[in-house]
Structure to design on (375 residues):
């Protein structure tokens, strides 16, 4: 049995202390796999005089050459043929600047195991029929955005009685229709079936604020959840503190903060980071996080801010085992008041790289077009 298989067979998703040695061995195995199969990745490692055999300890993971997500947006690196990848996705972006990610069957199997174990831990799996409200894109055959695929996948955590989307395809483009979402939420509040929302915090917040300004408030049925993906970045003109968001959600939809869940992730790093009841992103056993100084790119001590470097051996298809994101974050030592001892990641925002246009920025552009730039 391979070390990678053993890692993604771990049942306790936050048992990082007891899986450290296994994670290192899985990373070394995955590094060797891509080094032998991807010429471009081998050239990167050779340029830094780094060999997969150099990965022996946790400290060695910080020495593994990382690849910035920006590089993947401009270059395609594959360790398998695209024909072997039944699932394909791209990162969000404009002007065609997007990362391509393909999942072969082995990678997809690992991802499914990981997602189900994390979802089960956070009590996201349910047998109750649920109404889904997606603050994102309605899926289309020609839409390979990872955000759209992830949101659709979320609707399988509980059987879907219905799905509605904030972004509908009309006249050759996606258009935001929050009025329909508002009317549906009012309708759903009169029933007994739980409601789960999922999508960009900016869309969700804008609707909540609009409903409050219109003196509209409802109480969603018992068991309803507000789920957020994408994060509040420094680009948001509409950004509010989490506590203010939670208060508004309770006032407008009757959902308290214990039933508001936020996710963090990236197309280039498909590990599910789900916040705990204290709203901290604990690091699961299937990935690791290194925070790097924004100037020197050297690792910093826990508790200090820097660029977020994400590591995982999940991919056989693409050499994305160590990527440097444009996120600024802090890695905090455990334990947490929720009871988990795993370190947790706090996302502060994103660096101002002009040619990285994120889905969050796209959300802000649409919001500004609706509000006329008003806060």
């Amino acid at each position: 049995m391979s070390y990678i298989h053993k890692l993604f067979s771990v049942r306790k998703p936050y048992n990082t202390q007891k899986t450290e040695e296994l994670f290192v061995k899985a990373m070394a195995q995955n590094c060797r796999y891509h080094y032998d199969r991807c010429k471009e990745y081998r050239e990167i490692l050779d340029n830094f005089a780094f060999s997969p055999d150099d990965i022996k300890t946790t400290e060695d993971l910080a020495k593994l050459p990382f690849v910035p997500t920006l590089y993947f947006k401009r270059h395609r690196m594959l360790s398998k043929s695209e024909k072997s990848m039944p699932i394909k996705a791209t990162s969000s972006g404009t002007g065609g600047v997007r990362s391509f990610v393909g999942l072969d069957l082995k990678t997809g199997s690992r991802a499914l195991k990981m997602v189900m174990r994390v979802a089960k831990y956070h009590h996201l799996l349910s047998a109750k029929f649920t109404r889904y409200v997606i603050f994102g894109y309605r899926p289309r055959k020609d839409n390979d955005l990872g955000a759209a695929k992830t949101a659709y996948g979320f609707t399988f955590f509980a059987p879907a009685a219905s799905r509605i989307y904030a972004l509908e395809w009309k006249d050759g483009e996606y258009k935001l229709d929050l009025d329909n979402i508002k009317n549906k939420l009012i309708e759903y509040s009169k029933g007994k079936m739980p409601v789960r929302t999922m999508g960009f915090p900016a869309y969700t917040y804008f609707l909540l604020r609009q409903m409050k300004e219109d003196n509209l408030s409802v109480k969603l049925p018992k068991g309803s959840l507000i789920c957020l993906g994408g994060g509040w970045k420094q680009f948001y003109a509409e950004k509010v503190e989490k506590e203010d968001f939670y208060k508004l959600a309770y006032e407008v939809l009757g959902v308290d903060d214990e039933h508001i869940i936020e996710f963090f992730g990236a197309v280039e790093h498909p590990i599910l980071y789900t916040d705990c009841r204290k709203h901290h992103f604990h690091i699961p056993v299937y990935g690791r996080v290194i925070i790097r100084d924004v100037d020197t790119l050297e690792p910093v001590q826990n508790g200090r801010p820097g660029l977020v470097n994400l590591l995982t051996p999940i991919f056989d298809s693409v050499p994305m085992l160590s990527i440097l994101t444009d996120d600024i974050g802090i890695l905090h030592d455990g334990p947490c008041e929720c009871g988990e001892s795993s370190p947790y990641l706090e996302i502060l925002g994103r660096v101002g790289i002009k040619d990285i246009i994120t889905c969050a920025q796209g959300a802000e552009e649409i919001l500004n077009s609706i509000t006329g730039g008003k806060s």
Observations:
- Confidence is low (pLDDT under 50) at residues 353-375.
- The radius of gyration is 21 Å.
- The chain is about 30% helix and 25% strand.
